[in-house]
Amino acid sequence: MTTIASTTSKEKFALAAETAAVSRGYWTTVWTRLVRDPVSVGCAVVLLLMVLIAVFAPLLAPYDPSQGTMLKRLSPIGTEGHWLGTDELGRDMLSRLMHGGQMSLMMGLLPVFIAFAIGTSLGLIAGFFGGWINSLIMRTTDVFFAFPAVLLAIAISGALGAGFINAIISLTLVFIPPIARVAESVTTSVRNLDFVEAARASGAGNFTIIRVHVLGNVLGPVFIYATSLVSVCMILAAGLSFLGLGVRPPTPEWGLMLNTLRQSIYIQPWISVLPGLMIFITSLCFNLLSDGLRSAMDIKR
Amino acid sequence: MTALLRVQDLKKYFPVGKDLLGRPTQVVQAVDGVSFSVEKGRTLGIVGESGCGKSTTARLLMHLIEPDEGRISIRGKEFGNISGRHPVAELRRQMQMVFQDSYASLNPRLTIEDSIAFGPQIHGVSEREARQQARDLLEKVGLNPNVFVRRYPHELSGGQRQRVNIARALAIKPEIVLLDEAVSALDKSVQAQVLNLLSDLKKEFGLTYLFISHDLNVVQYISDDVMVMYLGQVVESGPVEQLYQNPAHPYTRALLSSVPSQTPHERKQHKVLEGDPPNPIAPPSGCRFHPRCEHARAICSSQQPETTRVEGLHQAACFMLPANPNHEKYIQLQEVSA
User: Do A212 and B93 touch (CB under 8 A)?
Assistant: First the structure.
C-alpha cells in the first residue's frame, strides 16, 4: 500500500516538474531578457521621461515658450529664474526644450512608424511573391537609393514646400525604401524555409501563410531595424527645420532652435549646444535600445 | 487490385540562365519521365545518390513545384492545375509530406500545438476541435501532450521535432504520407525509434508511405517495394527482397555493394562506384549511367535502354538483361575501350 502511494506521489511530482518546465511564449522571453539588460532599461527610462515631459510640457514648463523679454536675452545657464538660461529673444530655454520635445519626438517617430507599416507591406509582398512583382517593387525603391537620404529629404521637402506635414511626408518617403529592402530580404529567406512549404502542402492559401507563418518571423528583425532609424530620422528632421523646411518659428523644435541659436554661439556657447545635446541623447537612447532589443530577440535554437 | 497512387511520365526541367529575351539557355533535367504506382498499405522506398531527383519527385507529387508533364492520380482520379483535372487542394488532403530538416519545417514562432492544429483549421475544423486533435496526435506519436503542447520547436530535440512533424502531417488525415529523408538527420538510435513509430502509425491509420532516403539499410527495413533513381530517371524497381538479393542494374549493384557489411567475413570485394554523377544540365547520351558503368558498350551511349521485366514485378532499364529487346545488339557489340 505504502509503495503504491509513494510511486503515485513520485509520478505526480515528475508530472508537476514537467509542467513547470513548460515554456513561456517567445515575446515573454524576449521581454525578460530585455528587462535584465541595464543599458536598455536605462535608455527606455530616459526616453519615457522625455516623452512624458514633452506631453506634459504645458503643465510642467515654468514659462510660456514663445514669450520672452529682450532685457534678459541670452542669460547664462544658472541664472535665477531661468536655470538653463534664455535664448536670443529672451525666452526661457528650459520651457522651450520641454515644448520642443513634442515636435522633435513626433518628427522622429511618426515618419519611421508610417514607413515601417508601408515598407514592411511592400517588402513582404515583394519577397513572398517574387518574380516580376519583386522586380517592380524593389527596382522602384532602388531609384531612391541613388540619392543620399539627407539630399532626398531636402529635395522632397523643398518640392512640397515648408511645413510640418510636408516634412513628415518627405521623411516617410525617405525611410520606406530601406525598410522595404530589409523586409524583402528577411521575407525571401523565410519563404524558402520548409515550414512555409509544409503550410502550403496542408492546403493554406497565400494570405493565410503570410498572416500565420511569415509575418511573425519578419516583423521582429524589421522592427529592430526601424528603431535604429528613429535616431537618423530625428537628425534629418532637425536638419529640415534647421534649413527652414520643417517647423516654422516661433514653434519650439530642437532642430530649429539649433539653427536660430547658431548666431549666438560665440556669446553663449553652452546655451547654443543645449538643443543639440537633446537630439544627441534621444538618438543615442534609441540606438542603444534597438541594440538591446536585437540581442534580446536573438534567442538561440 | 488498382493502385492507390499512380504516377505516369512525370517530368520537370528547371531552366538555368537566361538569354536577353528571357528564354532559358540551359535546362536541368531534374526529373525525366518517372512512372510508378503504389498500392494501398504498402511502402515504396525511393533511393539514389543526392541530386538524382528524389526530393524533386516528392515536391512534384505535392505540387509544391508545378510538374512540366505527367499524370498523378489517386484511386484513378487525376489531379493537377490543368482544367479537367481534380484540384490540387483535394490532392493535398489525401497526401502529406514530412521534410528532412525537422527544425526548418516547424515555424519557430508557433507552439507545437498551433503547428499541428494549423492544417485542420484550413480545412474547416473548429479551433477547439483542432487543438483536441493535436493533443491526441501528440500522444499517438509518443509525446506527452501535457508537456509538449505549449512548447516551441527550439526547446525540443531532433527526434521529438520529427515526431511533431509526423503528427502535423497526419493531422489532415491523409492516406499517403511522403517521407522525404525524414529520418536521415537523426542519429541511429533515434532513427530506429522513429522508424518503429512510422510502422505503428501505418498499421493504426492504414497509411501508405513513400519513403525517400539515401540510406539503403533504412529503406530495406521499412519498404515493401523499392525504386532506384539515377539522374532523374528510374533505373530499377521491384519488391524489396528481390531487388536487394538480385539487383539487375549495374548502378543498383554498385550502390548495394557500397553498403558496409555488418559481419567481417561477408565483406564485399566489389568495385566501388567511381566519380560523381554527371552534370544533369548535359546528361550523357543513351543510358545515363554508361560513363560510370564497367559493362558499358557502344549501344549504351547511343540508345536509351527500355525498362524490362527481370522477374515478376522486378524491372530494370539495362541492355544486359536478356529480356531487353536490344539485348542481342549489346552482346554483339564490342566493349567500349576506356
Answer: no
The reply to whether B72 and B180 lie within a common domain is yes
**Nearest CA distance, B316 vs chain A (angstrom):** 32
Q: Cβ(A93)–Cβ(A73) under 8 Å?
A: no
In 3D space, the residue among A180, A276, A292, A164 whose CA is nearest the CA of residue A227 turns out to be: A292
Q: Do B104 and A193 touch (CB under 8 A)?
A: yes
Nearest to A23 among B103, B151, B168 (CB): B151
Domain count within chain B: 2
Domain shared by B79 and B102, yes or no:
yes
For residue B197, give its domain range: 5-246
Question: Domain spans of chain A?
Answer: 25-297
Which of B62, B103, B110 is opposite residue A201, by nearest beta carbon? Answer: B62
Q: Does residue A270 have a pLDDT over 90?
A: no
Nearest to B208 by CA among B59, B62, B64, B37: B37
* Chain B interface includes A201 (CB < 8 A): yes
Same domain, B169 and B274: no
Q: Which of A91-115 are b and which e, b meaning 16 or more Cβ less than 10 Å from the residue's Cβ?
A: bbbbbbbbbbbbbbbbbbbbbbebb
Residue A118 has pLDDT above 60, yes or no: yes
- Which residues pair with residue B236 across a beta bridge? B228, B316
Contacts of A25 in chain B (CB under 8 A): 111
Q: Are residues B112 and B224 in the same domain?
A: yes
Statement to judge: residues B241 and B306 lie in one domain: no
B292 and B307 part of one domain: yes
Phi, psi of B157, rounded to the nearest 5 degrees: -80, 170
Lowest-pLDDT choice from A217-226, B13-22, B200-209, B307-316:
B13-22
Q: The domain A25-297: what is its CATH number?
A: 1.10.3720.10
The model's pTM is 0.79
Grid cell, residue B14, equals 528547371
Residue B317 and residue B228 in contact, taking contact as beta carbons nearer than 8 Å: no
* Chain-centre distance for alpha carbon B81: 22
Q: Is B168 on the interface with A (CB under 8 A)?
A: yes
> At B43, is the pLDDT very low, low, confident or very high (cuts 50, 70, 90)?
very high
- Residue in B101, B103, B152 nearest the CB of A23: B152
**Final residue before a domain boundary, out of B246, B275, B305:** B246
- Give residue A12's pLDDT band: very low, low, confident or very high (50, 70, 90): very low
Q: Please give the average per-residue pLDDT across B158-184, as a whole number.
A: 91
Q: In what side-by-side order are the strands of the sheet with B77-79?
A: B24-38, B5-18, B69-74, B77-79
One domain for residues B120 and B262: no
Distance between CA atoms of residues B24 and B31, nearest Å: 17
Decide which of B215, B246, B277 is a domain's last residue.
B246
Distance CA B127, CA B123 (A): 11
* Lookup: cell for B216: 539503403
